[in-house]
Design brief:
The protein has 13 helices and 11 strands. It has helices at residues 11-21, 40-53, 78-81, 103-113, 127-143, 166-170, 172-179, 190-193, 200-207, 212-232, 240-249, 296-306, 314-318; strands at 2-7, 27-33, 62-64, 118-122, 144-150, 185-188, 197-199, 236-238, 254-263, 274-277, 288-294. The chain has a single domain (2-196, 239-311), classed as Inosine-uridine Nucleoside N-ribohydrolase, Chain A, CATH 3.90.245.10. With 323 residues, it is α/β, with parallel strands linked by helices. A 9-stranded mixed sheet has the order 3-2-1-4-5-6-11-9-10, sandwiched between helices. 40% of the residues lie in helices and 18% in strands. Helix 1 (11-21) packs parallel to helix 2 and helix 1 packs parallel to helix 11. The longest helix is centred in the last third of the chain and has 21 residues, at 212-232. The radius of gyration is 18 Å and the shape is globular. Bound molecules: alpha-D-ribofuranose (RIB) and calcium ion. The site of calcium ion (CA) has 8 residues, from loops.
């Protein structure tokens, strides 16, 4: 499966990128970055930081993208991901402030040149995809097989407002353009990513591991776990984005239903809410397949095996029991 991953690393994005790099089922044509969890200068550096740790920086290009939403002001989530966007990990690569917005044109160029259908996996706000659609929607409809996006929430249980999920909330106008692009979409929302809890015991095991490459993940996840404990009283942290990567190449790891999805684009309480018409009340054709159930234990096991070298015991990983 040939993919472009659009991402805002970000701690869960970093785990997602590592899973993608370590998954032979995926051929990564490029990584494009966006603002979101952190400003785009940080998310771009962080994507390169993860690739360098995995020894993949020479073969996978990273292209910077949007530094803010189409119309709205920039909002980032440093409280969730840390001042550099990667938790307690100190960046080693330079921080380039003078970035151009290459991502939309790169998406079009790679789509045009692709000899096989391309999948766009979106793990952050959808501004880059919306800009690419604005430049040449017919080309993308022709060349992009599907968009798999981590975003939204079908039941109105949000994480940035009572009803909205962060990626969609950041740029509702971009999300609306993607949802009405005519390209097949699979939506991986908070309703299923909330089952992707990496328990505190697993974070502690990584943070205490004597191998530097595993302690690096532990230092990243410790910050994220402390945020979830403070914000939601959770004894762990939620790995949203890796679920979208796993479902992209292994759709059988979940169950999705076709439905019409629209986005609230007001400035009030419902900004960015994804309204998912599960029973066809609106008499509108489905424009997305929304995941309703996932095999989260299988995906957590896959991450442990492929990204963390199996360092976390099954008990710590699935039951949170420290061993
Ligand atoms: O709401 C969760 C999403 O927002 C994840 O993609 C996370 O990385 C943030 O971008
Ligand atoms: Ca993300």
């Amino acid at each position: 499966m040939r993919v472009i991953i659009d991402t805002d690393p970000g701690i869960d994005d970093s785990v997602a990128l590592a899973l993608a790099v370590r998954s032979p089922e995926i051929d990564i044509a490029a990584i494009t970055t966006t603002y979101g969890n952190a400003p785009v200068a940080d998310t771009t550096r962080n994507a390169r930081e993860v690739l360098a740790r995995l020894g993949a920086e020479a073969r996978i290009p990273v292209y910077p993208g949007a530094d803010r939403p189409l119309l709205r002001s920039l909002e980032v989530a440093l409280d969730t991901h840390g001042v550099h966007g990667i938790g307690y990990v100190a960046p080693t690569l330079p921080h380039d402030e003078l970035l151009t917005v290459d991502a939309p044109q790169v998406i079009l160029r790679l789509a045009a040149a692709s000899q096989q259908p391309l999948t766009l996996v979106a793990l952050g706000p959808l501004t880059n995809l919306a800009l690419a659609l604005a430049l040449d929607r017919p080309l993308l409809r022709e060349q992009v097989a599907e968009i798999v996006l981590m975003g939204g929430e079908p039941n109105g249980y949000g994480n940035i407002t009572p009803v909205s999920e962060f990626n969609i909330w950041c740029d509702p106008e971009a999300a609306e353009m993607v949802l009405h692009s005519g390209i097949p979409i699979r939506m991986v929302g908070l309703n299923v990513t909330r089952r992707m809890v990496c328990p505190s015991a697993a974070v502690a095991a990584l943070a205490q591991d004597s191998r530097p490459e595993l302690k690096w993940w532990g230092d990243m996840l410790r910050f994220y776990e402390e945020f979830h404990r403070r914000r939601e009283g959770l004894a762990g942290c939620i790995l949203n984005d890796p679920l979208a990567i796993a479902l992209a190449f292994a759709p059988e790891l979940g169950t999705a239903a076709p439905m019409h999805v629209d986005v609230m684009r007001d400035d009030g309480l419902t900004r960015g809410q994804t309204v998912c018409d599960r029973h066809g009340f609106l008499d509108e054709p489905p424009n997305a397949r929304v995941y309703l159930d996932v095999h989260s234990a299988d995906v957590l096991h896959m991450i442990n095996t492929r990204v963390w070298e199996g360092a976390v015991s099954a008990d710590a990983l699935l039951h949170g029991m420290s061993t």
